[in-house]
Amino acid sequence: MQEKIQKLTAEIENLQATAAAEVEALRIKYLSKKGLISALFNDFRQLSVDQKKEIGPVLNKLKDYATERIAALREAAEMADDTTLGIDLTRTATPIKLGTRHPLSLVREEIIDIFRRLGFTIAEGPEIEDDWHVFSALNFAADHPARDMQDTFFIQRNPDVLLRTHTSSVQSRAMVNSQPPIRIICPGRVYRNEAISARAHCFFHQVEALYVDKNVSFADLKQTLLYFAREMFGPDTKIRLRPSYFPFTEPSAEMDISCNLCGGKGCSFCKHTGWVEILGCGMVDPNVLDACGIDSKIYSGFALGMGIERITNLKYQVNDLRLFSENDVRFLEEFKPAH
Ligand code: DAH
């Protein structure tokens, strides 16, 4: 009996089966009522009490071992069977389609990066603002048309709660909250009550820069603008400043860059002038400094503001603003990063 048990144990140890049906045949051979192990149990009954004491545990062990081994073979065979059903566990994973960065985010990061290299840090402010931070602090006269319902989305009147129409509001917040030197860049979304078309949208994005310190001059502004234009549009880019008007800067200017499509020769994009407008800028009006608690007799500053959509249009020739917010993947996929 002992010998038979040993022989069966060795046999079971060497069992092989690749399909579930083969495993079932093995189960019948060893573990069914008419199987080899059951036969041993029948023989067991004939033994003397002493022999039973000796053989009993060994026989039980064999039965457990056979049950375990066959269960393991079944599991392996079932997994292998899955392969034939089309599940191949060794196959490399299906590539997941990776998303792409939104063109406005790409350009915003690029703008921030350039100013960061000049020592500017990011400042943020709320999109839901009050009249003071968006207009009054920035020297807008009480009857300035920009406050008109046509431009501004008012959430509440008296006291005014509104959606900021420009990121210049972050300037006022920064100046109220800290003393110079202030060197900040403020990216963000702005809102204006405009009919949506290829050229206008009710929300868009701006980046504002502000530098306030002792002895900040127009030359500092000009050099910063030149650096920015060359980093953004290439080393051969030229800039041109035209006198302009903004309530919060004096003097104010608008900056053009040499058309990056025709290199300044003149094309339909730059309306054959060789120049395209990209931002507004100027020296912070002393009224603004004083309104925000900064002594305009000691400090001066420059500010500039640009539309991210505008810069993106110039860089990637997107000529319909609506594309930026429609989230059409065919459009977005064109902006795969180079690396
Ligand atoms: N806030 C202006 C706008 O929304 C842009 C601007 C112009 C910002 C001149 C400035 C600036 O800081 O100096 O159109």
Quick recap of the structure?
The chain is α+β, with helices and mostly antiparallel strands and 339 residues long. Helices cover 41% and strands 20% of the residues. Strand 3 and strand 4 form a beta hairpin.
List the helices and strands and how they pair.
Elements: H1 2-13, H2 20-31, H3 36-45, H4 49-84, H5 103-117, E1 121-122, E2 128-130, H6 131-134, E3 154-156, E4 161-163, H7 168-177, E5 182-191, E6 203-213, H8 218-233, E7 239-246, E8 249-258, E9 275-284, H9 286-291, E10 300-307, H10 308-316, H11 323-326, H12 329-332
Parallel strand pairs: 1-5
Antiparallel strand pairs: 2-4, 3-4, 5-6, 6-10, 7-8, 8-9, 9-10
Helix pairs in contact: 1-4, 2-4, 3-4, 5-8, 5-10
* Ligand list: 3,4-dihydroxyphenylalanine
- Give the overall pLDDT as a whole number: 91
Question: Main sheet: which strands, in order across?
Answer: 1-5-6-10-9-8-7
Gyration radius from CA atoms, angstroms: 39 Å
Q: Estimate what percentage of residues fall within beta strands.
A: 15-25%
Report the principal-axis shape: elongated
Helix content: 40-55%
The tally of helices reads 12
Please state the structural category. alpha+beta
- The topology string of helices and strands comes to HHHHHEEHEEHEEHEEEHEHHH
Which stretches are poorly predicted, pLDDT < 50 over at least 5 residues? none
How many runs of DSSP E, i.e. beta strands? Answer: 10
Largest pleated sheet: 7 strands, mixed
Q: Measure the end-to-end span.
A: 73 Å
